[in-house]
């Protein structure tokens, strides 16, 4: 098939200008003839089933048995039923159940083992007790491809030990604008480094092609993602548009793909993003013309999470265009059933040609055969799975992760040679990152956004504090933990650990590079300690470079620790001297992303230019450097105003420029400037009460005596676009307390989208079932509102609570989130046409 160049400026593709490649595996005649034989026996239903991947939150083994689905995935928030924090045996049992279903032909079809995929992006990060490696932006700083290879190998072993043989990694993105919240998933802004690492990590995960190790029982299928341009989107917007030339797309953003293919990568995931306005999931020229035909990729091209639904003319349940563009398997987490039915009809009608279907299924079967799935048997029977307790989080695995932490630390400043620290002194360890393993790990850690966790969720892991304390104690010194910096004994030196809180897709996008604008808590602590004459070492936990010139000035030494993962002791290894006074480990890390001079310097030091950075790509001091860093400019280049995206109501008050409005049963509206307040007809009353601080919550009382509905709502200063969040399973979360509602309560919670536009869900019954008088974080999936008719791309009232029955509740905050104590149900969306 030759692909004609696409019409229109900036979207024309010239496959012949892309690197020519081929699979490192010569066609295996035995496998290819086995595929042909199997294909000849498969019905159209069997074939279409192979081309669909459903999420374990929305699909059961019975569904797999019935629909002959080729694959399932566990998304970031999808766990074995009833197991929010799964251990190896629970993943094994689930994987076994799906495997059994796929091999059971009692309801027809052929026995074809199902592929089970998961995001193991910094170690096997959905498994409790696993080894968690530094996130990729940290690994970039190590400049150590062999280490990257070994991390891939260990990740593969821990996956296999839990009965899973496919990861959605590595991310080969080359982020150019780190306002993008997924920047930490990328190794570097430098395509050369990404290309070098691509081969290394694929080799570690899959083993070397042509050797017996390749895809053996200790290795897994790797996925190069997200093809292509995910790190090049305009303004760093997640799922946005990469407005770059074909040359830049090829030389910068695609740099990792040819080496990954050469190293034998078996799956490529297509990006959510667009290239010059064309959604990648519908781009025939790039998928079929470049990736498959020119670069010789012979494995599976996988779609991203309902990304096909964004192709013009498509929905999540229907997208012939994506298959026709060359995608072989679509990730249809909650939409698989509709997609199955529609795709089947389209194949039967010839809208998707049978030759295309056969190509897709051939590739899927090829990967399954290369992995030896037809012979391997139960996932739990794998040799590593059988001894999972020894394999997962084992001492050698953790030692590797700890080495990766040491190698990734980047020293930006070390005035007065405050580092290395003599461990025989009295050392204060402060900051909210000091003893916070969740914060060390960031997103894609046990939960999708990495939120809602405590240290207890990380058995076997070590916080930064625990590592420091152990070594200081062993050396005969003393260490004191005081998160807020208020020490008991005046320290000889303070180590302040602070930085970004966990986030993942779209939740992490920023308008500029200011660190925590409007909240100077960490800066104040650094200044206060220094003001007391204590030498201060700042340890910054972050997924990406941010503008922290004020914090750098306020500290004597400044260490970027990135998101180091589960082995926090790697930080003590480098910051402290050995007990005998030697320097055991020097700094090794060099910036793999340039560091910005102001909060608006984007992109910085990127291929596209952007002016002189504060610290250039490749910067990183060692203990051999004895210079002094002079004071840096404290001009952020932008007003440091607070206001967090996705937070609508906080500590009992509307977010900046939002308004609280009451609508009485008689339709009259009242803007609430101060509390208490009420509608003139008395149908709804709002007052103040205490949640964690004085008057940091609001009570709402519906009198229920009037004949109509009264509403409280939050009005946004400008319409909000939460379409992506809706697609991504984000919740509207409110911390609330039900004091009195009747079993027949008529409450609805919804959102508004302009005059006459809204979507709301009945919640009265579920609210009345909640424990009364108890504060709870209650979430409602955004897709409930979409399914109830709201236009999620222009929300002007992100929260509306209506009722005509009497009741009393209290709320303290309303925001977008992904973790809740209770998630309310809405009418099911999985079965919609
Ligand atoms: C992300 C992918 C991920 C997939 C499955 C998507 O939203 O973009 O990187 O592999 O979800 O969790
Ligand atoms: C899933 C993630 C997925 C995201 C899509 C979440 O619910 O858990 O794996 O990437 O939705 O945006």
Automatic annotation (TrEMBL):
Region (Disordered), start-end ranges: 1-29
Pfam families associated with the record: Exop_C, Glyco_hydro_3, Glyco_hydro_3_C
EC number(s) from the headed UniProt entry: 3.2.1.21
Enzyme class: hydrolase
Domain Glycoside hydrolase family 3 C-terminal as annotated: residue spans: 409-623
A single GO molecular function term of this UniProt record: beta-glucosidase activity
Keyword vocabulary terms for this entry: Glycosidase, Hydrolase
Residue intervals of the Glycoside hydrolase family 3 N-terminal domain: 44-367
Regions annotated as coiled coil: none
InterPro entries: Cellulose_Degrad_GH3, Exop_C, GH, Glyco_hydro_3_C, Glyco_hydro_3_C_sf, Glyco_hydro_3_N, Glyco_hydro_3_N_sf
Descriptive protein name: Beta-glucosidase
Organism: Luteibacter jiangsuensis
């Amino acid at each position: 098939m030759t692909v004609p160049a696409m019409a229109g400026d900036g979207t024309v593709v010239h496959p012949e200008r892309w690197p020519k490649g081929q699979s490192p595996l010569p066609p295996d005649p035995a496998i290819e003839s086995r595929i042909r034989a199997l294909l000849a026996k498969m019905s159209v239903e069997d074939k279409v089933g192979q081309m669909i991947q459903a999420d374990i939150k929305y699909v059961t083994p019975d569904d797999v048995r019935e629909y002959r689905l080729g694959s399932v995935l566990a998304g970031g928030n999808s766990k074995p039923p009833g197991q929010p924090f799964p251990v190896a045996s629970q993943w094994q049992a689930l994987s076994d159940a799906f495997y059994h279903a796929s091999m059971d032909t009692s309801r027809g079809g052929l026995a074809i083992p199902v592929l089970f995929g998961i995001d193991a992006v910094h170690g096997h990060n959905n498994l409790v007790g696993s080894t968690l490696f530094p996130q990729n932006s940290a690994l970039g700083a190590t400049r150590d491809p062999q280490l990257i290879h070994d991390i891939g190998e260990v990740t593969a072993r821990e996956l296999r030990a839990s009965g899973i043989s496919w990861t959605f990694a590595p991310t080969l993105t080359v982020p150019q604008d780190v306002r993008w919240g997924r920047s930490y998933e990328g190794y570097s802004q430098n395509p050369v480094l990404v290309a070098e690492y691509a081969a290394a990590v694929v080799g570690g995960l899959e083993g070397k092609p042509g050797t017996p190790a390749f895809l053996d029982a200790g290795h897994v299928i790797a996925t190069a993602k997200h093809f292509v341009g995910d790190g090049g989107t305009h303004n760093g917007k997640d799922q946005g548009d990469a407005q770059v030339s074909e040359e830049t797309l090829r030389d910068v953003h695609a740099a990792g793909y040819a080496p990954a293919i050469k190293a034998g990568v078996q799956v490529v995931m297509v990006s959510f993003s667009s290239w010059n306005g064309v959604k990648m999931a519908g781009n025939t020229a790039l998928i079929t013309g470049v990736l498959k035909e020119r670069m010789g990729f012979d494995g599976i091209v996988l779609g991203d999470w309902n990304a096909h639904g964004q192709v013009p003319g498509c929905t999540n349940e229907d997208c012939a265009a994506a298959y026709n563009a060359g995608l072989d398997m679509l990730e249809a987490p909650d939409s698989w059933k509709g997609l199955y039915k529609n795709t089947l009809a389209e194949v039967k009608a010839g809208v998707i040609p049978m030759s295309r279907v056969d190509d897709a299924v051939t590739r899927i079967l090829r990967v399954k055969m290369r992995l030896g799935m037809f012979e391997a048997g139960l996932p739990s029977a794998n040799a590593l799975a059988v001894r999972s307790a020894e394999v997962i989080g084992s001492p050698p695995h953790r030692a590797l992760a700890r080495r990766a932490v040491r190698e990734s630390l980047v020293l930006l400043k070390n005035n007065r040679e405050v580092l290395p620290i003599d461990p025989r002194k009295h050392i204060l360890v402060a900051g909210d990152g000091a003893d916070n393993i969740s914060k060390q790990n960031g997103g894609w850690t046990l939960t999708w956004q990495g939120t809602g966790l405590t240290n207890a969720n990380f058995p076997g892991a070590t916080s930064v504090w625990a590592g420091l304390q152990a070594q200081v104690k062993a050396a005969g010194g003393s260490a004191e933990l005081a998160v807020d910096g208020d020490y008991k004994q005046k320290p000889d030196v303070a180590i302040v650990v602070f930085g970004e809180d966990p986030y993942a897709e779209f939740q992490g996008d920023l308008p500029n590079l200011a660190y925590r604008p409007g909240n100077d808590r960490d800066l104040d602590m650094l200044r206060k300690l220094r003001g007391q004459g204590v030498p201060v070492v700042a340890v910054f936990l972050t997924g990406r470079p941010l503008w922290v010139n004020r914090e750098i000035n306020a500290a004597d030494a400044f260490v970027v620790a990135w998101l180091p993962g589960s082995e926090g002791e790697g930080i003590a290894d480098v910051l402290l001297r050995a007990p005998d006074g030697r320097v055991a480990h020097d700094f090794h890390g060099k910036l793999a992303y340039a560091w910005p001079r102001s909060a608006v310097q984007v992109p910085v030091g990127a291929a596209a230019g952007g002016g002189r950075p504060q610290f250039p790509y490749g910067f990183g001091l060692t203990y051999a450097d004895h210079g002094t860093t002079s004071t840096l400019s404290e001009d952020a280049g932008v007003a440091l105003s607070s206001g967090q995206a996705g937070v609508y109501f906080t500590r009992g008050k509307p977010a900046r420029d939002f308004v609280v409005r009451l609508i009485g049963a008689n339709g009259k509206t009242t803007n609430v400037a101060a509390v208490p307040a009420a509608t003139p007809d008395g149908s709804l009353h709002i007052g103040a009460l205490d949640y964690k601080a004085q008057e940091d919550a609001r009570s709402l009382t519906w009198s229920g005596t009037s004949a109509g509905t009264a509403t409280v709502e939050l009005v946004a200063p400008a319409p909000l676009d939460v379409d992506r969040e809706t697609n991504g399973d984000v919740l509207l979360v409110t911390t609330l307390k039900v004091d009195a509602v009747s079993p027949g309560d008529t409450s609805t919670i919804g959102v508004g989208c302009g005059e006459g536009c809204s979507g709301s869900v009945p919640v009265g019954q579920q609210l009345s079932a909640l424990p009364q008088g108890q504060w709870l974080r209650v979430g409602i999936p955004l897709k409930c509102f979409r399914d109830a008719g709201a236009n999620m791309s222009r929300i002007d009232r992100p929260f509306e609570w209506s009722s005509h029955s009497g009741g009393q509740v209290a709320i303290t905050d309303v925001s977008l989130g992904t973790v809740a104590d209770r998630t309310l149900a809405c009418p099911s969306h999985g079965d919609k046409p």
